[in-house]
Design brief:
The chain is mainly α. It is 70% helix and 0% strand. The longest helix is centred in the middle third of the chain and has 32 residues.
Length: 343
């Protein structure tokens, strides 16, 4: 609210006429009328007595507010949308700059206004002039070091997209690396986008493949966790279904063969199904006889394969030792047949 609106609103709330206000302040009624119309402002010496007369402080008189809250910003963006539809794009931009001048330190307003301007250009096809692009970029730069991590990360992400579009790859890369890992922004994907923009397709493919491997490993962990919960709740049918999904997921994502049988082996161990458990165990042990070679799959052509000399043998030995000593595996050692398979 502007000062003229505040004066009028508070005067009416006090049931005071313009003449009464003028008499109290030692000015003319036409002068008060001009204040309320916004054609002139009170003399600086009159501001303290005016505020006291209206029952407010100077901050309220000037409508001083450092920040807008989320609801107010949302309403303002709605107003921008309405102005754009009814009065045109240029007037909407003017309204945006006016509000930013009114709240120059409100970083959330700065971010959302910049995002709205970018979105309007993208969605509505409004012309993104060089001047508008420069001003919008300046808004992002203004808050790129904000103490608020969310604001800082979003501003930097938008600048990264702009720099890549302008082929400023070095600047984009520096901003990507400046993002904190816990920012909520997918830094890996930003790096991949940067590689693609630069034509570094092998690097982009390697990064995507490594993301896929991490995601696949995460899926397997989740499925095993779900199966364990189902087993503890005695939902055997659900547990069997989840074990099957785990195997299908591992096969469809070309994971190490060992992952095909892990869930079913754990399921049969809990169920004490000796025959099926030994079958799954045989497959597990067989999978440990050779090292996984991800590059054989089109999904992982560019992955750097780590040398795991002796890893499979050590894992096999650990598994066999556990089966020989674990009380839960005693049912597998009930006769000579079972003893031979484990040994």
């Amino acid at each position: 609210m502007k000062i003229n609106e505040t004066i009028r609103e508070r005067r009416l709330a006090k049931n005071m006429t313009q003449e009464q206000m003028a008499a109290a302040l030692g000015v003319t009624a036409p002068a008060v009328n001009k204040w309320e119309k916004g054609t002139s402002c009170p003399d600086i010496a009159l501001l303290p007595p005016l505020a006291r007369l209206l029952g407010i402080d100077l901050n309220t008189l000037f409508s001083f507010q450092q920040e807008m809250n989320v609801q107010e910003i949302g309403l303002f963006l709605g107003q921008l949308e309405k102005i754009w539809k009814e009065e045109g794009w240029e007037r909407a931009c003017e309204a945006a700059w006016e509000k930013l001048r009114e709240y120059p330190g409100c970083e959330m307003l700065i971010l959302n206004t910049a995002l709205w301007l970018d979105g309007a250009v993208l969605m509505y096809g409004e012309k993104d002039s060089q001047q508008l692009a420069a001003r919008t970029e300046e808004l992002y730069r203004k808050i790129m070091d904000s103490p608020d991590e969310q604001i800082r990360s979003q501003a930097r992400s938008m600048l990264i997209a702009r720099y890549m579009g302008e082929e400023k790859y070095e600047a984009a890369g520096e901003l990507i690396e400046s993002l904190p890992e816990a920012s909520g922004v997918d830094k890996d994907q930003l790096r991949i986008n940067l590689y693609i923009s630069q034509g570094k397709f092998a690097e982009a493919a390697r990064a995507e493949e490594e993301k896929l491997l991490r995601a696949a490993s995460g899926l397997q962990s989740i499925l095993l966790g779900l199966m364990e919960i189902a087993l503890k709740e005695n939902r055997m049918q659900d547990a069997a279904y989840i074990a099957t999904v785990s195997e299908q997921t591992a096969r469809s994502l070309d994971l190490w063969e060992y992952n095909f049988y892990t869930a079913h082996f754990q399921l049969y161990m809990v169920q004490k199904d000796r025959v099926k458990c030994l079958q799954a165990l045989s497959r597990l042990l067989h999978s440990l006889d050779s090292q996984w070679e991800p590059k054989k799959s089109p999904l992982y052509r560019h992955v750097r394969q780590k040398k795991n000399d002796g890893f499979c043998a050590e894992m096999k030995q650990t598994l066999l030792q556990m089966l020989k000593e674990d009380a839960d595996a005693a049912f597998l050692r009930e006769d000579e047949d079972g003893e031979d398979r484990i040994g």
